[in-house]
Amino acid sequence: xxxxxxxxxxxxxxxxxxxxxxxxxxxxxxxxxxxxxxxxxxxxxxxxxxxxxxxxxxxxxxxxxxxxxxxxxxxxxxxxxxxxxxxxxxxxxxxxxxxxxxxxxxxxxxxxxxxxxxxxxxxxxxxxxxxxxxxxxxxxxxxxxxxxxxxxxxxxxxxxxxxxxxxxxxxxxxxxxxxxxxxxxxxxxxxxxxxxxxxxxxxxxxxxxxxxxxxxxxxxxxxxxxxxxxxxxxxxxxxxxxxxxxxxxxxxxxxxxxxxxxxx
Amino acid sequence: xxxxxxxxxxxxxxxxxxxxxxxxxxxxxxxxxxxxxxxxxxxxxxxxxxxxxxxxxxxxxxxxxxxxxxxxxxxxxxxxxxxxxxxxxxxxxxxxxxxxxxxxxxxxxxxxxxxxxxxxxxxxxxxxxxxxxxxxxxxxxxxxxxxxxxxxxxxxxxxxxxxxxxxxxxxxxxxxxxxxxxxxxxxxxxxxxxxxxxxxxxxxxxxxxxxxxxxxxxxxxxxxxxxxxxxxxxxxxxxxxxxxxxxx
Lengths: 264, 248
Prior knowledge:
The complex is a heterodimer. Chain A is built from ten helices and nine strands. Chain A is α/β, with parallel strands linked by helices. Chain A has one domain (2-83, 132-259): 3-Layer(aba) Sandwich (Rossmann fold), CATH 3.40.50. In chain A, the strands form two sheets. In chain A, strands 5-6-7-3-8-9 form a six-stranded mixed sheet, sandwiched between helices. Chain B is an all-alpha fold. Chain B has one domain (2-244). Chain B is 77% helix and 0% strand. Chain B has helices spanning 2-17, 19-39, 41-46, 52-74, 76-82, 85-89, 95-124, 137-158, 162-178, 191-198, 201-213, 221-244. The longest helix of chain B is centred in the middle third of the chain and has 30 residues, at 95-124. The mean pLDDT of chain B is 92. The interface between A and B is medium-sized, with 37 and 28 residues.
């Protein structure tokens, strides 16, 4: 479903993604793990038409996202690292706009919107403005929205960041359920290794732009002779802390936190 | 088309739901209108130029449309990182449609704000000289809104951080307002100021509104319309180009 070979992205002299190749099969849940600044988000951005790769090949459901941009966009749903809901609008209205932008026919739009909002336990709050939602509810709504146009692939970029264990657990239960019922391929990134271990069928570990390991969680643990994925991850990527220079987005993220009183 | 419509509708819904913001945004124009209008009135009168309230009202209306429309565009900076815009940028819709929908929405809201302030002006004692041609003032409001919504989009697409926003505010938005002749007559100014005011597109917008509301004009209504249409067209093309280059 997703095919990436020899993908490279350089920003000036800095190589963010360095010769990365992997395949994700249809219906698979693939976790892309790596320390901060390893190239996870950059890879997602390239796969989702937001960034042009320097070199290499990509395929989403047999389509090159660079050439068939809109066709590719129709085939995936994405939940970004930063929130992307309109807080002034209601949950139902956020779904409605998404449906219109993705050319979902009115009837299907309403029916599927209802199904998804019920599935993600948001139906009773559909008429409320999104700014009154908790972090977990917002995340659930974003995922429900990502499914509205029946995508074949769902990208989740650190969807559980800042959520409490209850919300995280509930979120993954929903994702797993929809992965099974609709055969959606899921490509996710997270910093919580236990989540990846529990949810993902296969894992890829990226560090300094290079893919250092890939396989089932079990295979990776065996390969590194470790008990759990956290230890395996540390063994693969070392324990030095990555000093990321705070870019403009990070500064604004701080600002946003200040404004929302620390809530996401 | 449906994408343009739904994005336009989104801007309108957001506007009508933020009641506090609507009231707050009327504060500044009212301050200018009431304090300057009545405070400068006696001096203006003594200089033989008539009622300052009459004179400044079109300027205050123009100011409202300017701020409202340019901020809708500058809001892109925020919207593309933390807002809904990112969601629209990966949707299978041409960028141009997204830009048009958003800009039209911002411009519509700006015109509504302008009409609200017009109402406030009338309550404060402002009287248009000719009620028959009064609706023509809408043409100028729409043109001003189009020019500055497009300018806002062009800048908002290029801005990288919040500091840039402050810079634009102090070195572009405020000068556009102060150099527009919103607060003083354009005739008989020093050469440098004459040059600066005639390079400011808002001058033509406010002059156009004065020609409709007061029956007096510095440049002539025909030239006002021409300049505004040309500037709006150029800025819309430029804004669309900048918008198509946004990377997130």
